[in-house]
Specification:
Layout lengths: L20 E2 L7 E4 L1 H10 L4 E7 L5 H13 L3 E4 L1 H7 L8 E5 L8 H6 L6 E6 L4 H13 L4 E5 L8 H7 L8 E4 L2 H10 L3 E5 L5 E2 L9 E6 L7 H6 L2 E4 L11 H22 L5
Parallel strand pairs: 3-4, 6-7, 6-11, 7-8, 9-11, 9-12, 10-12
Antiparallel strand pairs: 1-8, 2-5, 3-5
Helix pairs in contact: 1-2, 5-6, 5-9
Length: about 280
């Protein structure tokens, strides 16, 4: 296990990157659907909601509670038929509620995310994950374990879509999803800011639990089947593996992300408990 330490700087005080973060969307209105995703948008960024669409046939307590929140936030609500919602979201289980949102307000700059972090940053980096259900699940795990952002390359990766937001169950509103033009260069810039970059690889010699994950950290996972790309692998400070005890040879990327983020969070809590408390 190797680590390149030369020339690094503090995780919040390093050089800013050359502006390679890009929008996850063009900023045009898009649809968010499902109770979890719409409720999270109402709580986190109600000003970005252009219009909320509620199925006129559904007025149960859950729907009424959501509409009450929308009214308090001053969000425009339109009663629509279930058929119209089906037409807006064909083949999708929308639960009778959706909203159109202005995507241009989403925080997208990785430097800004890192500069705003108090303490040691924790990032989840996804190399080539193209399935929206996997991305949504990764965002949900990242939010639950306190990760500060999920990072992905703009090529060979899924963007922020309604399916991602639905699966994320609100985490897409609380965990920044930053897409970059050159992932390998971004990893180097993270190292320059003091982050330890750890890649997941099934053939690695070191177990995840033996790796030091309590400091500034970027966990890098590849796409299911393909794994990490060569340049991504070469930029990592260390490669580790999830120890497997059963008969299966690999795990879904979102499951792996949850395991790795939990281990990082566990080590951070243990380190924090051992640290002398400030008086």
């Amino acid at each position: 296990m190797s680590r390149r330490d030369g020339g690094r700087r503090d995780a919040r005080g390093g050089p800013r990157s050359s502006g390679q973060s890009i929008p996850v969307s063009s900023g045009a209105p898009r649809l968010v659907y499902g109770f979890h995703a719409v409720s999270a948008r109402l709580r986190q960024r109600p000003e970005s909601i252009l219009e909320l669409f509620a199925a006129s046939a559904r007025r149960d307590p859950r729907m009424q509670s959501l509409l009450d929140v929308a009214a308090r936030q001053g969000v425009r609500v339109s009663d629509v038929s279930p058929e119209r919602l089906d037409g807006m979201l064909p083949g999708i289980r929308h639960q009778g509620v959706a909203c159109s949102v202005d995507a241009s307000e989403r925080p997208l700059d990785l430097d800004d995310v890192l500069d705003s972090v108090e303490g040691d940053p924790l990032l989840l980096v996804l190399d080539g994950v193209q399935d929206p259900h996997n991305l949504g699940a990764c965002l949900r795990s990242a939010d639950a374990m306190g990760a500060h952002a999920v990072v992905a390359p703009k090529d060979r990766a899924v963007g922020m879509t309604p399916v991602v937001e639905k699966v994320a169950s609100g985490a897409a509103e609380t965990t920044p999803y930053v897409m970059v033009t050159n992932l390998a260069r971004t990893l180097v810039e993270l190292q320059e800011r003091g982050l330890y970059v750890v890649g997941l690889a099934g053939e690695a010699d070191t177990d995840l639990h033996a790796a030091p994950l309590s400091g500034p950290l970027a966990l890098v996972l590849g796409a299911e089947g393909d794994g990490l790309r060569r340049l991504t692998r070469e930029r990592c400070d260390a490669l580790v593996r999830v120890p497997m005890s059963g008969s299966v040879e690999s795990l879904n990327v979102s499951v792996t992300a949850g395991i790795c983020l939990y281990e990082a969070a566990r080590q951070r809590r243990a380190a924090s408990a051992k640290s002398p408390k400030k008086t």
